[in-house]
Design a protein that fits this description.
The complex is a heterodimer of chains A (about 150) and B (about 775). Chain A is mainly beta and about 150 residues long. Helices cover about 10% and strands about 45% of the residues of chain A. In chain A, a hairpin with a 2-residue loop joins strand 4 and strand 5. The two termini of chain B are about 50 Å apart. Chain B has 5 domains: about 120 residues, Up-down Bundle (Four Helix Bundle (Hemerythrin (Met), subunit A)), CATH 1.20.120; about 150 residues; about 60 residues; about 180 residues, Histidine kinase-like ATPase, C-terminal domain (Heat Shock Protein 90), CATH 3.30.565.10; about 150 residues, SH3 type barrels (Roll), CATH 2.30.30.40. With about 775 residues, chain B is of the alpha+beta class. The chains are: A mainly beta (about 150), B alpha+beta (about 775). Chain B: InterPro entries: Bact_Chemotaxis_CheA, CheA-like_dim, CheA-like_homodim_sf, CheW-like_dom_sf, CheW-lke_dom, HATPase_C_sf, HATPase_dom, His_kinase_dom.
Chain lengths: ~150, ~775
Amino acid sequence: MTEEITVTGERRELISFRVGEQEYCVDIMAVREIRGWSPATTLPQSPGYMRGVINLRGAVLPIMDLACRLGMPVIEPTVRSVFIVVKAGDRMIGMLVDAVSDILSITDDLVQPTPDLACDAVRSFIRGIISIDGRMISEISLDRLLPEREALAA
Amino acid sequence: MDELEAIKVTFFQECEELLADLEGGLLAMQDGNDDGDTVNAVFRAVHSIKGGAGAFGLEPLVRFAHVFETLLDAVRSNEVPATPDLVVTLLRASDVLADHVSSARGLGVVDEAVSAAMAAELKACTDPNAAPAPVAAPVVEAVAFEAAPVAAAPAETLIGADDALDDDDLGFDFQPMTITIDEQAADVAAAAGNVWTVSIRPKSDLYRKANETALLLRELARLGPIEATLDASAIPPLDMLDAEAAYATWTVRLETEEDETAIREVFEFVDGDCDLEITRGEGLAPDAALAALLAGEAPAPVAAPAAPEPVIVAEAPAPVVIEAAPEPVAVAPVVEAAPAPVAAPVAPAAPVAAAPAAAKTQQIDVPGPGQSVIRVDPERIDRLIDLVGELVINQAMLAQRVGEYGIAPSSNLAMGLDELEQLTREIQDSVMAIRAQPVKSVFQRMPRLVREVASMTGKQARLVMDGENTEVDKTVIERLSDPITHMLRNAIDHGLESPEERKAAGKNPEGVVKLAALHRSGRIVIEVSDDGKGINRERVHSIAIKKGLISPELQLTDEEIDNLIFLPGFSTADKISDVSGRGVGMDVVKRSVQALGGRISITSRPGQGSTFTLSLPLTLAVLDGMVVDVAGETLVVPLAAIVESLRPKPEEVRPLGPVGSVLAVRDSFVPLIDVGLTLGYRDSSPPPTEGVVLLVEGEDGSRAALVADAIHGQRQVVIKSLEQNYQQVDGVAAATILGDGRVALILDVDAVISLRRREPPRPAEPTLIAAE
């Protein structure tokens, strides 16, 4: 057990990635692994952003098209496409993104609230916006990403 | 501290078992089996709970258990007759006791008023003549005291009893001596001439259970002045001494106003572990007592000048065994020790064999290493099952790869693979068998439920259970409880009539609710039936219309009307009660059952009652399925639902309505359902004649013909939950992983049928829209 060292406020590490032309990020602690694209089994009766499910070492892992979830055009998977396996609540999901860019180390004061003009859907998925070196990176709020279990089952 | 916690956990596990025994015994008594064994078993259960609770200082539990136990003791000794009314009271008391246990465990709170009322009721039953029981006070004390590492006492057999802890082993030239302990004796003051002689002869087991004679003497001293005499004559010379044996015997002269029960209470926790003899008057010489014991009967008062009759010879209810170490020894079934009189006084080895001669002795027989039962953390088994699942998938994958290389079936490699497959199957079966459990664990909670619901609704109900030993995988067991609870409540609340109505209808005022479990064609079937009034179809129909669940013009068969009660939001209870009528009725049950790959249906006969039939797979871990291709996707159809598969001839397919078509199977017509279309894999269906048709049967017995593109064959697949990482998907029961490592979905046949029903192309059809 090593004591956690805190530097100037709560320093966090984030993994940033590209979705279309935009940059997003998630807390690195939520990321379990990053894998290359492999074809998914389509799920019937599911929202368009659900790409289907894949076998992740014996577990059934749903794959979500992040672009589509955020209201953008569906990602056409290429060899460079990856999915980021994240833990959201008690569930694991794979987020299909175009490419992983880098790891950021930030303090919370760099995070700005999501501007008003964004549509509600987007706003509820974005925790805040980080500005680094002139880039704008939006942090994804993982707990809202998957629909509530009951909500869709009906 | 953690260790104590661990022991406590074990204690609560045992409590569960004991409570079940208690209830089982009481129910047996209710059925008229009130023989001595049953009553004893019931008494022992309460006694053991009290003992363990005392060790952990669980005061409220101890207090209640004590009152309960006192009554049971009276029943046991036939002082209080076990009338049916009394048994009912005892059953209710067992419920309160269970509440106390839960509360001690930190789950839930005991309603103090209920508990106190119950205790008072028990006391009243114990002592109809209101003779005050002087017992109570000292006992609680004794018990509280036991909270330290359980105390104990006693005398010792000639036989070797044992004991490393025996503090008397310090020197070997013992002379009998007199010890006077008057610690508390002063308080009690010279009791008026009531002299008792208590002879205590510990067995090695007593010490082994960390009991201690000195503490027992101290407890005795609380009752009045004592004089204890140690008889060390049995201690052998050093070279023959067995360090684990018990040799000493004490004879205690006790002056007290308390009665024998109070004295006996002191020895409550060493019952069976020592030979105990309590005699009024200046007692027997130890040797005489011994001789008497060996004679195997109530000792004749030899050598005891003024000795009146010896009162009882160590009658030993099972001692409380709290295993000091949380070892995985498990489940000590109460075995009746052979009441054989101790024969050879020189058998130092047998610790258990030394059953006291008293007639009714019973002992907890801790299973020896040979027949031991192991308590295993279920998570370990689950892990094992998961791993075996992976193994099965991997083995299939390997076989498929090898097959792709075109290796001859007679080659060593192929044969080796065959063997691997067989082994894998066997391992899987064995592992699944580990987790199989009798449904008893769920069933045994139900009598209480029935009692409570019956009293809440003012009905008289008797629960008859059948097939408690039917085994099913633990994953299924866990999920059985809710549906069964719901169905039972429903049966009593809605099914049974009030006693008056029943009388008017010429029935026994007491309704019978039957709960049965059985295996049927690879599934477990649970039936809940009542002999009540049956479903009021007219009313059900009108309610369903009133609530807008079905359209008024719809003509329904009786069976369809019965099944309307599974519609969401359907509740026929006129008034909302605690019991049911919360509007989350049978539809919730149906949903949860379907989620398990199960089916539920109801049959009803007016005036004669209704039967709910619940059928579930034996395990939720594997499934036999047919692998099919649909629109480029691979799907698994549960074999249990498939009646037959066929390739339809063009003349068998008949169009019906604008887009629908039916398949003529022998003399009946079955709707054709294109799976790809229903699940949204494709927009239009190819002619059914190009594909294959799986004739399936839904849970309600309705048939449908599912159209798929091709059949790959049968396979046993490992079920993987979609909900774990995602959620339930309509039309899909679960997922699995096929030989090529890809995920395939397992079709939910019933859902597909009902999805089809509400498909847009046929909007005009008055369907059971909400039925899904």
